[in-house]
Amino acid sequence: MIRLEGLNKTFRSHDRTVHVINDVTQTIPDGSFFTLLGPSGCGKTTTLRVIAGLEGHDSGSVWFGEKLISCPEKKVFTRTSDRDIGMVFQSYAIWPHMSVFGNVAYPLTTRRNKLSSSQIQKRVLEALELVGLEQLSQSASTALSGGQQQRVALARALVSEPQVLLLDEPLSNLDALLRERMRSELTQLQHKIKVTSVYVTHDRAEALAMSDYIAVMNGGRIEMTGTPDEIYRRPRTVFVAKFLGHCNFIEGTIRTRLSDSTGIAETAFGAVEVTMEKVAAVGAAISLLIRPEDLVVVADEEICSYSAQTLLIRAYISNTMYFGEHYEYEALAGDVALRFKGNIAPNAANGQIVLALRRGVCWAFASGAH
Q: Is the backbone of residue 279 left (phi > 0), alpha (psi -120 to 50) or beta?
């Protein structure tokens, strides 16, 4: 388990202080695939570098299990080479003058307690087998494809059997098809070896597809931590909602409070059940979050089959975008702009359609939050 407690890191830039990491406290469970997700400059890579010991921090502490790794207040700082970590960088950092075997073996040859040649041979071949490159152990590293280089970098990070694996946007230099394949392979590998992994990316699809837990960062702070479904479906802040994907917002008011976290909201398009972090008082204004995939086109004869607490929205299609496996549409319902998805083009007379919610419950924020 990794624990970050009250981490702070500042830089001086043009006579002003920039809080790159601002009071970050986070627990990363043993054996989990944990992603730091956020836009460029949010502090995610700096946080990873602090965990690795490649970057100092101003205050706070880093723990690996019960061992204090770094704490400026207590004058504790464990060198990177003594942190029992493996790292994979965005650039892979493959040495061109070494073979595949030599690249992967290198961490074992620089240890204080060097392994024997037979031990190194065994470890390297096991690591290459994990990433599917055992047949290329003697190949020149310069002859490898981008995906193969990425696997070599991963094998090199794993060969010393680290307690923690740190990955800084390792797939960002790959083409879209290879990147998608490597997501799957990396996730399967992590589940197989069960090493605690911290992954940095700005790609929301990558984070959602690969992670056990995601921490969304913004301005040096962690806005929210949760499972991919929690982050996507029940975002704690509007920033998290927008960063995880397109958002439709519909204004409403609380008509009935059912519990501290649920209620019935009234909108211009009808009533709907909502969930919130904390449901506001009756009559309070709220904003409903509706994802594009939550809307479906319904035929006029199907409308009567929907309950009274389902939003039915009459709208006009204003734009159509084809993505191969699906269409995405922009529509207007009065002055409300909506985006929705479909597998086939809707049969719309004069562009007019009726949209309904696939889900019976909406997530909502206090009005004005977005």
A: beta
Q: Is 233 helix (H, G, I), strand (E, B) or coil?
A: helix
- Which residues is 119 bridged to in the sheet? none
Looking at domain 246-366, does it have CATH number 2.40.50.140?
yes
| Structural tokens at position 155 | 């094998």
Residue 285 reports pLDDT greater than 90 = yes
Shared fold status for 2-242 and 246-366: no
Contacting residues for 3 by C-beta, under 8 A, at least 6 apart: 26, 27, 28, 61, 62, 63
b/e map of 207-244 (b: 16 or more CB within 10 Å)?
Answer: bbebbbbbbbbbebebbbbbebeebbbbbbbbbbbebb
Across the range 246-275, mean pLDDT stands at: 94
* Closest to 234 (Cα-Cα) out of 219, 250, 214, 217: 214
φ/ψ of 183, rounded to 5, equals -55, -50
Proportion of the chain above pLDDT 90, given as a percent: 65
Residue type, 195: V
CATH architecture of structural domain 2-242: 3-Layer(aba) Sandwich (3.40)
The domains of the chain are located at 2-242, 246-366
Measured from the Cβ of residue 79, the count of other Cβ atoms closer than 10 Å reads 7
